[in-house]
């Protein structure tokens, strides 16, 4: 299913130029651009959340305590494997 989305003439020209230079369809380029933007926004929000948490001593202590409590599980079942000790 496809639908029409309005973009500026400049954006359409840029997408067309990318399509011509890569051999991809314009729709593929727009799809990939939106996916990349979604990832960027996700990681930007993730980093902002960590920045806020780092500014909250009680919250950061809780994260560190949780990490310490879970750290033994990171090697659970890995003892004796070559190259991991």
Question: How would you describe this structure to a colleague?
Answer:
The protein is built from 3 helices and no strands. By secondary structure, the protein is mainly α. It has one domain (9-72). The radius of gyration is 23 Å and the shape is elongated.
Properties at a glance:
3 helices, mainly alpha, about 0% strand, about 80 residues
Q: Oligomeric form of this entry?
A: single chain
**Count of alpha and pi helical runs:** 3
Order of helices and strands: HHH
Structural class: mainly alpha
The biggest beta sheet is recorded as:
none
What fraction of residues sit in β-strands?
under 5%
Shape: elongated
Q: Helicity range of the residues?
A: 55-70%
The number of distinct structural domains comes to: 1
Mean pLDDT metric: 89
What would you report as the Rg, rounded to the nearest angstrom?
23 Å
Describe this structure in a few short sentences:
This protein is an all-alpha fold.
Secondary structure blueprint with pairings:
Layout lengths: L8 H14 L3 H29 L2 H14 L15
